[in-house]
Amino acid sequence: MVVGVGCGPGMLTERAIAVIRDAELIYGSKSAIERAAPHIGNGCEVRIITDYAALRLLPENAVVLSTGDPMLAGLGYLGGEVISGISSYQYACAKLGIPLTKTAIVNAHAADHAAAFEVIHGEVCRGKIAFVIADPAFDVAACAMRLQDACPACMIAVCERLGYPDERIAIGDTNAPPVPASDLFVVMAGVF
Ligand SMILES: C[S@@+](CC[C@H](N)C(=O)[O-])C[C@H]1O[C@@H](n2cnc3c(N)ncnc32)[C@H](O)[C@@H]1O
Q1: Which runs of E-coded beta strand occur in the chain?
Q2: pLDDT per residue over 88-109, tens digit each?
Q3: Where does 2-86 sit in CATH, by number?
């Protein structure tokens, strides 16, 4: 079973908490385990994931924690039952007051960023607000430059460390895009 633990602290659903409480064996990243820790039972064996390829070979009773929502570039690909979590996508849209229906998701995490810029450009040109799953190397300024001819009113938001005490949401435009101050951020681009 794969359980979403939310994109930041305090975002576990009641369903996720119930599964974590009953678990005998839990796998997760350090941050996912930290989020679940208050609900993990004394007898539960907890292991930090070191080899993501080996996750497909886990025993039936293993509960795999996935940050955010498992189906948003998370561990939901492992299959089996998936318990959804609050994603950085949902959280950022709520914070910016952007309806999910106006958005298009672009996954630039560990991906070809130049190719992602083209996809983002295409989405903005067809009137969508692009939600971009970034990684620390994602160059927001270069993305903004590519969007300069997409539409004159295009805004760029950088949403960092969502849900954490030092959460930061900065909004700019294609001429003056926000500069990320941390490694954990998503980008929103379009008219909003
Ligand atoms: C492998 S993806 C996992 C996304 C996750 N499954 C979700 O639902 O948000 C990791 C990327 O998600 C984004 N992300 C996850 N948590 C975040 C947070 N709390 N604040 C900002 N961005 C976040 C960042 O772009 C990060 O590089």
Answers
A1: 2-4, 25-28, 45-48, 62-66, 82-83, 103-107, 129-133, 155-160, 168-173, 185-190
A2: 999 999 999 999 999 999 999 9
A3: 3.40.1010.10
